[in-house]
Amino acid sequence: MENAATRLETVRANIARMCKPARREPSSVTLIAVSKTHDAPAIQPLIDAGQRVFGENRVQEAQGKWPALREAHPDIALHLIGQLQSNKADEAVALFDCVHSLDRPSLLTALAKAMDKADRQVPCFVQVNIGDEAQKGGCPIAELPAFLESVRRTDIPLAGLMCIPPADTEAAPFFAFLAKLAADHGLTGLSMGMSGDYETAVMLGATHVRVGTALFGSRG
Ligand SMILES: *Cc1c(COP(=O)(O)O)cnc(C)c1O
Hints:
The chain is α/β, with parallel strands linked by helices and about 220 residues long. About 40% of the residues lie in helices and about 15% in strands. The chain has helices spanning about 5-20, 40-50, 60-70, 90-95, 105-120, 145-150, 170-185, 200-205, 215; strands spanning about 30-35, 55, 75-80, 100, 125-130, 160-165, 190, 210.
């Protein structure tokens, strides 16, 4: 029988298995349970099974379900993994403990201002448009050095780099490329890998994997 707890056990075991050949400690990989589209009753079993880091891709959806869930478990960390509009920066800073989608100067300005106002510094990953896809979010690779420099001129803690590789392609080369870009810029955090490829991502250095379907089942 497949339930949330056994799925969580499986994903954790897979992460640990991939850490071994890479000579990494399983504790060096943060598993983010991506709970977008799933309601509180679907999330609760994972909390009961000990999962404490969750990811959402929309501010409004997260505002609807997480304050109540967190009241009972104040040690839960909430990560924003989806694109963020600058006019939602205040709300995002109030609700999230980490942002994975910092990708442009206007959002940097908005987040820095929101964090100053709230006196709360939320670590941010810079999302990189690793496949150079026109329709996708993420900082263009050519603009990454200058953008990282402007992030470093603010008080925002720079967590590392994040990417979503092109769909229907082998992800490994893109993960390896992101790891190289991070190393080139002295960054250790790597947010990469989803349900279909988190094991590959761990082998290639992911410090944060964002796993939804493999934990919750399909989003219908
Ligand atoms: C939905 C989502 C995920 C999780 O995807 P699964 O394939 O369900 O594991 C990871 N990262 C981002 C940015 C997402 O939007």
